[in-house]
C-alpha cells in the first residue's frame, strides 16, 4: 500500500511540475492572441484538479500491471525486429524515430478517437473532453479516468508492440506527450497555412471541438491530419474560422465534489455521440459562401 501511495504522490508531483510551467506560458499566449472567449480561472483550475485525480487513479491501477506487460512486449518491437535492433544515435535519427513513433501512435489514436465519437457506449468516456465551453490549453488535461485507462490498452500498448520501448528518445517523448497537446488545444489565433494538412494545430483542432453540428465527425488526428485526409474526416479551416466550442446538449459542470466524481468517472449524462448520423461536412468553397462570410475572410 505504501509503495502505491508513494508512486501516486511522485506521479502527481511529476505531472504538475511539467504541467504548470507549460500552462503558464501557453495561457499568456492565449490572452495575447485569443481565438475566442477566455475560460474563467475556476474552469482552468477545474481541469487541473481533474487531471490530478485521474493521474492518481491511473497510477494506482496500472502500476501493478506495467511490469508484466513490459516483460511480455519485445523491447525493440516490430520495428526493432525488422531493422535488427536499430537504435537512434544521431540527432537526425532521433528526429526520425520520434516521427515514426508519433505516426504509429496517432494511427491507433485516430481510430479509437473516432470510435469514441461514433459509438454510444464509448461517448461517455470522451464527452468530458468536449463539454469545455471555451477550449484552452488546459482542455488537454480534461479527460475521464476511463479515457486514460482505455488509451493505455488500445493506443499505447499497440504502439509499443510496433515500436518497442527503446525507439522513442526521451526528448521526443516529452515533446509529443507532455507539450504538444497544450499547443493543439490552445485558445490562440494561429493559422498554420500550408502546414495545416501536414501537422495538427490549434485552429484545425478547434474545429473538432466546435459546438455546431456542421463540424462534427471531423479532424480526429492528434498529430498528423493525413489520417483524416485518407479516411474521409478532414476539414480544413477557412481563413479566420474560429468557431464557438462545447456541446449544445451538455453544459460544462461547475467544480464541486459531486461533479468532480461524475466527470472523472464519466457518469454524467453525455448526450449523443457527435459522429452519429453526422457525416463530415467539408468547408464550403468561396463561391458557395454567403457574401458576408466572403467579406469576413477576405
Describe this entry's structure for a reader.
By secondary structure, this protein is mostly helical. It has one domain (2-297). It is built from twelve helices and no strands. The protein has helices at residues 2-32, 41-72, 77-82, 91-118, 123-130, 145-163, 170-178, 180-184, 202-208, 226-231, 257-264, 291-297. Helix 1 packs across helix 2, helix 4 packs across helix 5 (123-130) and helix 4 crosses helix 6 (145-163). The longest helix is centred in the N-terminal third of the chain and has 32 residues, at 41-72. The radius of gyration is 20 Å and the shape is globular. The N and C termini lie far apart (62 Å).
Q: Give the N-terminus to C-terminus distance in angstroms.
A: 62 Å
Largest sheet, strands/sense/barrel: none
Question: Which stretches of 5+ consecutive residues score pLDDT under 50?
Answer: 285-298
| Rounded radius of gyration (Å) | 20 Å
Number of helices: 12
Tally of DSSP β-strands: 0
* Percent in strands: under 5%
Nearest-integer average pLDDT? 86
Number of domains: 1
Question: What shape does the CA trace take?
Answer: globular
Following the backbone from N to C, one meets helices and strands in this order, namely: HHHHHHHHHHHH
Helix content: 55-70%
Class by alpha and beta content: mainly alpha
Write out key terms for the chains shown.
56% helix, 298 residues, disordered C terminus
Amino acid at each position: 500500500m505504501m509503495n502505491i501511495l508513494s508512486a501516486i504522490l511522485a506521479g502527481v508531483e511529476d505531472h504538475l511540475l511539467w504541467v504548470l510551467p507549460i500552462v503558464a506560458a501557453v495561457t499568456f499566449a492565449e490572452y495575447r492572441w485569443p481565438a475566442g472567449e477566455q475560460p474563467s480561472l475556476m474552469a482552468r483550475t477545474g481541469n487541473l484538479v481533474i487531471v490530478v485525480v485521474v493521474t492518481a487513479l491511473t497510477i494506482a491501477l496500472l502500476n501493478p500491471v506495467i511490469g508484466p506487460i513490459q516483460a511480455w512486449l519485445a523491447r525493440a518491437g516490430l520495428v526493432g525486429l525488422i531493422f535488427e535492433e536499430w537504435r537512434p544515435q544521431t540527432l537526425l535519427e532521433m528526429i526520425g524515430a520520434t516521427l515514426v513513433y508519433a505516426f504509429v501512435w496517432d494511427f491507433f489514436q485516430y481510430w479509437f478517437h473516432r470510435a469514441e465519437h461514433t459509438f454510444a457506449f464509448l461517448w461517455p468516456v470522451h464527452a468530458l473532453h468536449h463539454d469545455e465551453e471555451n477550449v484552452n490549453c488546459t482542455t488537454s488535461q480534461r479527460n475521464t479516468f476511463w479515457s486514460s485507462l482505455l488509451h493505455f490498452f488500445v493506443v499505447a500498448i499497440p504502439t509499443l508492440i510496433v515500436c518497442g520501448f527503446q525507439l522513442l528518445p526521451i526528448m521526443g517523448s516529452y515533446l509529443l506527450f507532455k507539450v504538444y497537446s497544450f499547443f493543439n488545444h490552445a485558445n490562440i489565433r494561429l493559422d498554420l497555412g500550408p502546414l495545416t494538412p501536414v501537422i495538427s494545430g490549434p485552429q484545425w483542432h478547434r474545429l473538432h471541438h466546435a459546438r455546431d453540428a456542421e463540424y462534427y465527425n471531423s479532424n480526429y488526428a492528434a498529430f498528423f491530419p493525413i489520417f483524416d485526409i485518407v479516411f474521409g474526416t478532414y476539414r480544413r479551416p477557412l481563413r479566420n474560422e474560429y468557431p464557438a466550442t462545447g456541446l449544445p446538449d451538455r453544459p460544462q459542470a461547475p467544480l464541486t465534489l459531486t461533479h468532480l466524481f461524475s466527470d472523472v468517472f464519466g457518469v454524467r449524462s453525455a448526450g449523443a455521440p457527435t459522429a452519429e448520423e453526422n457525416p463530415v461536412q467539408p468547408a464550403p468553397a468561396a463561391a458557395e459562401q454567403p457574401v458576408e462570410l466572403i467579406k469576413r475572410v477576405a
